[in-house]
Batch of 2 targets.
Target 1
Amino acid sequence: MKKSISMLTYAVLFSVGIASAQSNYKIVNKIHIDGDEGWDLLAMDESTSRLFLSHGRIVQVVDVKNGKLIGTIPDTKGVHGIALSTDLNKGYTSNGKDSSVTVFNLKTLAVIKKIPVTGRNPDAILYDEFTHKVFVYNGRSSNATVIDATSDKVVGTIPLDGKPELSVTDGKGKIYVNLEDKSMVSMIDAKTLKVEQTWSVAPGIEPSGIAIDNKNHRLFIVCDNKLMVVMNAQTGQVITTLPIGEHVDGVAYDPIKKRVYSSNGEGTVTVVQEGNENTFKIIENIVTQKGAKTIAINTKTHHLYLTTAEFGITPEPTKEKPKPRLSIKPNTFVVLDVAPIK
C-alpha cells in the first residue's frame, strides 16, 4: 500500500467527528500476535474463519473463532497483500522486497512455489474467480503481472497509466484498480487483459482502497484527502462523496447490511449506510486504534478485522536517516475484532 505502517508518523486526529455516544459497534476481541515488524493488508477466508495477515517477512494465519495462531507462511519478504482462491485451494502473496509471488496450499499452508513477477515491488494482489487469474500490481513499474491460477504460470503483463493500488472484481470479467499518483481508476477486461477505461476520481486525490457493490454497480474509493468517492462502475460517473478520516488505506463493503467501512489510520472506521444506488450517509465513526488503516470483513458474521500496534517515540533525525520512522513498541502487534452490537 502507500507505506508500510511502520513508516507512518502521525497523531490520532478525529477529523471526521467524534464517534457516536452510543456506538453500534464495539471491539469484542484483541488478538495479540508475535512479531514487531510492519504490516499491511489482510484477507479473510469466510469458509474456514481463517484470517491471513501480512507481517514483515511472513504471513501469519489466525483462527478468529478462538483467536489462535494456526500457522505461518515463511519467506514472503516485504509482503503486502494476500489473495485467496478457495475454489482452487490456493493462496497468493505479493512480496515487495524480492518482487515475487508465493503460492501456498490454502488448507495446509504449505508453500507450493514462488513466481517472479514482471515488474518491481508487487503491492496489491487480486484473485478473479471468473477467469481463474491472479492480478499482481507492481507499484514501482506501473504494471500488473497476470498469473493463471490453474497452472501458476505468468500469462501476461498489463501496462498501467500510473502507480496501482488496491483492486476489485465485478465477478463478470471486469477488474478495477486505483491509480494512486494519477488520482484515477482503470477498468480492465479480465479476459483480454486490456485496459478498457480510465476515469478520474476527482474530487478525490490519491485513491488507495476500493470496494464494490456488484448489485448496484457502485465503486467505493477511499482517498488521501479524506474523501470516499462513490462511482458508477459502468460509466465512471461520480455519484457522490463522503468525508472520512485521515491516513485511510482500506475499505470494505457488506452486501447484507449494505454498509461501507473505511479504515482510517488515525484510529477510526467510518461507517456509510447505502440507502439505494444513489443515496449514502455516514451513520457513525467507530473508535479503533491508531495505525489501523487496512481492513478485512467476514460478510457472514459482519465482523471487521484490522491490524495495528502501539507506537513509541520518533528517533531524532540524522544525516543518514533525515526522516526516521516511528518506532513500534515490542510485542504489541494486534488484530482488532470489531463486531456489530445486536
Target 2
Amino acid sequence: MRTVTPAERDLARIIWEQAGNQPASPQGQNLMTATFEKLRLHLLKLIGVMGFQTMFARALALAKLEIDWLHDVQIDQDGSLIGFVEAAFKSETNDAAEGGIALLAHLLSLLDNSIGEILTFRLVKSIWPEISDESILFNAGEGP
C-alpha cells in the first residue's frame, strides 16, 4: 500500500483551507462536514454507497494512525461521518485542521490509486473549480 504523497497532502490542505474549515465557530462546523459531504455526493455517483463507504473507511483507518482524536470518528452506513465535528472540538484547533487534512489526503490518495490521476483531477476540479490545475497535479511534471 502506497502512502500519501506530499502533493496529495498539499492538495488536501488547499481544499481544506479554501473551504474555510475553522472548527472554532458554528459556521466552521458546517464547513468541516460540508467538505467531506461534497466529495461523498460526487463519489456516490461513481462508485456507489458500498464502494464509497469502503474507501472512506479505509481512508479513516489510515488517518487514525496519524491523528489520535480520529479514533472517535466513525462512518455511517450511507458513508457520512459520525462524530467528526464533536471529536474535532475536543482536540486543539490546529490538530482539528490536521485531522481533516489527513483524512482528506488519504481519501485523495486512495482515489488516485483506484481511478487514476486524470479521473481524480477531473473529480476534484468538478467539485472545487476554484482550485488551480497546478494544485491538483499529483506528480511533478505530469498531468492530465
